[in-house]
Each structure stands twice: as C-alpha cells, then as structure tokens.
C-alpha cells in the first residue's frame, strides 16, 4: 500500500470535519495539506476536485430534496462556474510549477486571511442583483480550480452579502458546485493524463469516516472560532510554501536558527 494513501485518508478526514462544521473550506484545507506534503499544485487540485465529485453530488441531492435550491440562480452560477473552472484548471496545468506554486500559495494565504475576516465581521445587507450569479460563478470557478479551493467561501459569502436568503444561497451554491467540480476534474484528466487514484481514494475514505463526526460537530462547534483557527492554519501553511518557493534550501531559516542557538550568539 502506498504510504501516501494513509496521509490522504488523514487529510480527507480533517478536511471533512472542517467542512461539516463550517459548510466550506474542504478544498482549501485539503489542497493546503497536500501541497505541504510535496504534491504539485495541479495534482493536488485534481485529486481534491475528483474526490469532491462524490461529496458535492450527495450534498446537492440533499439540498434539492429539502427544496433549498433557487434554480434560476443555479442557471447563472453553474455555467459561469464551469467556464471559470476550466480556464483555471488549464492555467494551473500548463504554467511552469516554479511560477504557479508560489502564486497558488499566495492565493491560499489570501483565502486564509479572508476566512479569518469572516470570523469577525457580519456580511453587509445589500440589494440582490439579478445578474450577480454569473460574475460570482466565473471568478469563483477560476480561483477554485487554480488554487484548489475557494468556491464555497467566495460564492456563498458573496451571495449572502448581496441579500440572498441563506438557505437558498447555500443550497444553490452546493448544487452548482457539483457541475463545476465535474468540469474541473474532466479538464485535469485531459491536461494531466489522469490522476493518482490512491490519493483520491484516501480523501474519499477519510471523508466518509469523518462525516458522522462532522454532523455531530456542527451542533457543538462555534463557527466563528473554528473559522479563525482554520484561517490561521491555512495561512500558516501558505506562508511556509511561499518561504520554500523563495528559498528552496531554507538557508535563511537555517541561519536564523543558528543565530538563535547559544553557540550562535557566542560567535
């Protein structure tokens, strides 16, 4: 058994716990973990989105059953999200890893800071724009594919801030995410020539194991506190990836460590 399989199980377990408690950040947590383990950005995003096809399909069906979906909003979100997602997947697949990795890390850092701000502010009440879904879907789809996550935080919070009812905003975003995720995964299959199924299986198994615990956690977790913790965690991993991209051998960190040691000060 590939040892990375068990790491993927752990990543899927932790990411599903977070997503179950917050309703977002599965992609952000999974991609941050995988990149920290040395997985290239495109491969990490491909594995995460392929695994998400299963979870978003179940989630979308549940929201449809509960009549939480505004289908006119889905018809604006999903097609634009698909276009943006395909463009983002192609960008992260074809750009040199030396360029795309620090860019994706910087994006994850910004998303981590964004999640932290969500923990401390209340979304402003604004009139609903009937055409807002297309722009939100296009941007959300592109950043979700290129950065490995962000569809939920970007789409849901933007729609809530523009005055959409919370129940329909969450339900419509979840249904749209299934189609966007499927398009992103198909694009990665074509551009990368396939994905590592052991990684995907690990993410799925970990998520399935965490689902019952996450369902319980959502009833006791304090969302704002958890958002702050997750935002700080994602930001920390992103900062580490940026530092490694700037200084691959971490010579700067090593020199600081040497200076901080007693022998370093004695010199």
Explain this structure:
By secondary structure, the protein is an all-alpha fold. The protein has one domain (3-266). Helix content is 82%, strand content 0%. It is built from twelve helices and no strands. It has helices spanning 3-22, 26-36, 41-65, 71-94, 97-118, 132-147, 151-161, 166-192, 197-220, 223-246, 251-260, 262-266. Helix 2 packs parallel to helix 10 and helix 7 (151-161) packs antiparallel against helix 8. It is globular. The protein starts with a helix and ends with a helix. The model is unreliable at 256-261 (pLDDT under 50).
Strand content bin: under 5%
Measured on Cα atoms, how large is the radius of gyration?
Answer: 19 Å
Number of strands: 0
Largest sheet: none
What is the approximate shape? globular
Structural class: mainly alpha
Helix fraction bin = over 70%
Question: How many domain regions?
Answer: 1
Provide the low-confidence segments as ranges: 256-261
Alpha plus pi helix count: 12
Oligomer: single chain
Distance between the termini: 49 Å
Mean pLDDT: 77
Give the SSE string: HHHHHHHHHHHH
């Amino acid at each position: 058994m590939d040892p990375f399989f068990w790491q993927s199980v752990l990543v899927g377990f932790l990411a599903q716990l977070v997503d179950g408690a917050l309703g977002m950040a599965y992609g952000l947590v999974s991609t941050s973990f995988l990149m920290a383990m040395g997985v290239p950005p495109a491969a990490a995003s491909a594995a995460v989105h392929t695994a998400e096809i299963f979870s978003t399909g179940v989630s979308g069906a549940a929201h449809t059953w509960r009549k939480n979906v505004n289908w006119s909003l889905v018809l604006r979100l999903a097609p634009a999200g698909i276009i943006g997602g395909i463009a983002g997947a192609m960008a992260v697949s074809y750009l040199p890893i030396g360029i795309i990795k620090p860019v994706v890390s910087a994006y994850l850092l910004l998303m981590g800071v964004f999640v932290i701000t969500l923990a401390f502010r209340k979304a402003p009440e604004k009139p609903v724009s009937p055409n807002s879904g297309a722009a939100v879907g296009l941007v959300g789809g592109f950043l979700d594919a290129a950065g490995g996550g962000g569809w939920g935080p970007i789409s849901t919070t933007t729609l809530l801030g523009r005055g959409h009812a919370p129940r329909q905003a969450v339900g419509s975003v979840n249904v749209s995410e299934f189609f966007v995720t499927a398009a992103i995964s198909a694009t990665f299959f074509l551009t990368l020539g396939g994905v590592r199924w052991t990684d995907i299986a690990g993410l799925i198994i970990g998520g399935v194991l965490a689902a019952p615990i996450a369902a319980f956690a959502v009833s006791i977790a304090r969302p704002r506190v958890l958002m702050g913790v997750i935002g700080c965690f994602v930001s920390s991993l992103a900062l580490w990836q940026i530092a490694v991209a700037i200084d691959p051998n971490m010579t700067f960190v090593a020199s600081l460590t040497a200076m901080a040691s007693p022998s370093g000060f004695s010199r």
